[in-house]
Amino acid sequence: MAWESLALEPNQQQNTSLGSFSVIHVHDGDDPRGPKVRLCVAGEEEHRYNLYPGDTFPVAEGQWKLDRVVFHDDVRWTVFLSKVT
């Protein structure tokens, strides 16, 4: 299956053919860039990224982007990722 996008929620790990994706923490502070997301991607190696909406990060042979974060309430959110290349 070719993965083009992912939606991650609290306490959830998404396992794909590219690796495992999970959000460690989301901080919605006063940063004008938007919420800060601490993301973990584990494949052959584990990588952790601090990302803001629009930031890209490598996964396998491609690039992925943090599209947006939707807050449902104080403790529930969804982080949306999409494949760029």
Tell me about this structure.
This is DUF6406 domain-containing protein. InterPro entries: DUF6406 (IPR045642). It holds the Pfam family DUF6406. The protein is mainly beta. 0% of the residues lie in helices and 58% in strands. The chain contains no helices and 8 strands. Strands 1-8-7-6 form a 4-stranded antiparallel β-sheet, with no helix packed on it. A 4-stranded antiparallel β-sheet has the order 2-3-4-5, with no helix packed on it. A hairpin with a 3-residue loop joins strand 4 and strand 5. The chain is globular, with a radius of gyration of 12 Å.
Overall structural class, as computed from helix and strand content, comes to: mainly beta
Let me know the average pLDDT.
94
Strand content: over 45%
End-to-end CA span: 16 Å
State the helix count.
0
What percent of residues adopt helix (DSSP H or I)?
A: under 10%
Uncertain regions spanning at least 5 consecutive residues: none
Total DSSP E strands = 8
Characterize the biggest β-sheet: 4 strands, antiparallel
Reading the helices and strands in chain order gives EEEEEEEE
Shape: globular
**Radius of gyration, whole Å:** 12 Å
Strand order of the largest sheet: 1-8-7-6
Pfam family, one: DUF6406
Protein name: DUF6406 domain-containing protein
Organism: Actinomadura fibrosa
InterPro entries: DUF6406
